[in-house]
Design a protein that fits this description.
Elements: E1 3-28, E2 35-51, E3 54-69, E4 72-87, E5 96-111, E6 114-140, E7 143-169, E8 173-188, E9 192-207, E10 210-225, E11 233-234, E12 236-251, E13 256-284, E14 288-318, E15 327-340, E16 344-357, E17 360-373, E18 384-397, E19 400-430, E20 438-441, H1 449-456, H2 460-466, E21 480-483
């Protein structure tokens, strides 16, 4: 008679990953006359709420537009709030939602006396929820195979931190600040998560009436409370700028300005709590056929984070027609678009190149490809962050440009932990009894004691006692004898 004891528990799992895009437009109606030479868009998440089959999310977009009228530069800034959604069959109201927003593409067009900035906002939504785990802890009336395994519980966390920094800049004003935060290390402690990283700040400023670019690296460290954090281990985390302001106080005598940066960083991440357990992975009965049900869990566990600093060089593509009458002034607001390859990353760096021609300031978009191999990185690892720490553009020949940029790459690495266990067992029809006194079995290469006993329909200890000379795993050349006594 089959008698199973079931163990149950609750764990958190990743259920779905969704992507969506939306277009947000901001109209600048009151502006100084001139040509739009630079635009920067910063997006931040304000809400994300899952419902049945849909995730409704909202964000705030702030655009900074720089105009040039001859040699005169001016700046305008405007914001807008928006809502959009991502659909998926697996979305349910009780799920936990992590939504990451990015500005994928920005364009400016002229409509009458106004400028309209269009931004394609991309959303990546990761959903997780609680599920019940049940497995057979013991099974009387059958022979069972037990193995040690780890049951994983993926737990999300989130939090915020305020960052402040002050520094001097040889300039008279800051037109556009752009910033990208990158988490370089994240450790789960007892009761909190410790996060450290850097903000890569790129400033388009004015010095003696001419545009200049300046870059600065601002380190940060934060602790996010988390009651479910128990044992220390690596954790995955990303950061985004929720709010940022840059104040300037000009010192005309020194030709410098005191810059005060104030930013609020939002953190989103997850870690894995593992529980060691003895699991039944297989079973059979010598008397009856068994109908077995197996469950399998796969969990991505963060094990390490690797940080790379790479300097890249490459010819650049430009949209404007440049020649030796153009004087390059500044390359600013760099961003990296990239995808992961088998052994690294590849993509392109875009930036705004401001140049002077006939005493007038103009601009063009510059694109520089790059490909970087990352030594020692697991090909099946976690997401990668790429930040541009500065870029310079020069004209190597008339109409031909080349660029040089410094990249900081943060690659989260991990393992996919898989566990398979017996979750249900039912007793089937009675097996036919063997009448012969001796059974000769021809095993397959690689069979162990358990596989051999299951094929013979005998207890593993009986097979081992009848054939003490065998060594497992088998080579496939053995002949196994099983003796049966008189009934």
């Amino acid at each position: 008679m089959l008698n199973a004891t079931i163990a149950t528990g609750v764990y958190t799992r990743k259920t779905a990953e969704l992507t969506a895009q939306s277009i947000v437009e901001i109209r600048f109606t009151e502006q100084e006359p001139g040509e739009a030479v630079a635009v920067y868009a910063q997006v931040s998440l304000t809400s994300a709420e899952p419902s049945s089959g849909r995730v409704n999310y909202g964000g705030r977009l702030i655009c900074t537009l720089v105009l040039a009228d001859g040699e005169k530069l001016c700046r305008m800034q405007k914001g807008a709030e928006f809502t959009h959604h991502a659909d998926g069959d697996a979305v349910a109201p009780a799920q936990t939602c992590d939504c990451a927003l990015t500005c994928e593409r920005t364009s400016v067009r002229r409509e009458g006396s106004s400028y309209v900035v269009s931004v394609v906002v991309g959303a990546r939504v990761v959903l997780s929820d609680g599920a019940e785990r049940s497995y057979i802890a013991s099974l009387e009336g059958a022979h069972v195979k037990r193995e040690e395994g780890k049951l994983c519980n993926v737990l999300p966390f989130s939090g915020e931190s305020d960052i402040e920094d002050g520094f001097n800049l040889v300039a008279t004003d800051v037109l556009v600040p752009s910033a990208q935060p990158v988490v370089l290390n994240c450790e789960k402690k007892t009761g909190y998560v410790e996060i450290s990283g850097e903000i890569y700040l790129s400033l388009l400023a004015v010095r003696e009436g001419s545009p200049v670019a300046s870059d600065r690296v601002i380190p940060f460290k934060a602790e996010v409370p988390c009651e479910r954090a128990v044992t220390p281990s690596p954790a995955y985390c990303r950061a985004e700028i929720k709010d940022m302001s840059v104040g300037c106080k000009v010192n005309e005598e020194r030709g410098k300005c005191d810059v005060e940066l104030s930013a609020t960083l939002a953190f989103y991440g997850f870690f894995c709590e593992e529980e060691q357990a003895t699991l039944i992975t297989d079973a059979f009965s010598t008397e009856n056929a068994l109908k077995l049900t197996y469950s399998e869990e796969k969990t991505d566990v963060c094990t390490d984070v690797k940080v790379y600093s790479e300097r890249v060089f490459a010819p650049c593509a430009v949209k404007a027609k440049l020649d030796y009458t153009c004087a390059f002034l500044a390359a600013a607001l760099p961003q990296a678009e990239f995808s992961r390859t088998q052994d690294g990353v590849e993509g392109s760096i875009t930036a705004v190149l401001l140049y002077s021609r006939n005493s007038e300031i103009h601009s063009t978009e510059v694109s520089m490809p790059f490909s970087v191999k990352l030594a020692g990185l697991n090909a099946a690892g976690f997401p990668i962050s790429v930040a541009v720490c500065g870029i310079s553009i020069r004209q190597r020949a008339e109409g031909e440009c080349e660029g040089e940029a410094q990249l900081k790459i943060c690659a989260w690495d991990g393992e996919t932990r898989a566990v398979r266990y017996l979750s249900a067992a039912e007793e089937g029809e009675k097996k036919k009894s063997e009448d012969c006194a001796v059974t000769v079995h021809f095993p397959a290469a690689g069979d162990g004691l358990w596989e051999t006993a299951k094929k013979l329909g005998a207890a593993p200890e009986s097979v081992e006692a009848s054939n003490p000379e065998l060594s497992y795993p088998l080579t496939g050349k053995e002949r196994i004898l099983l003796f049966r006594g008189k009934k």
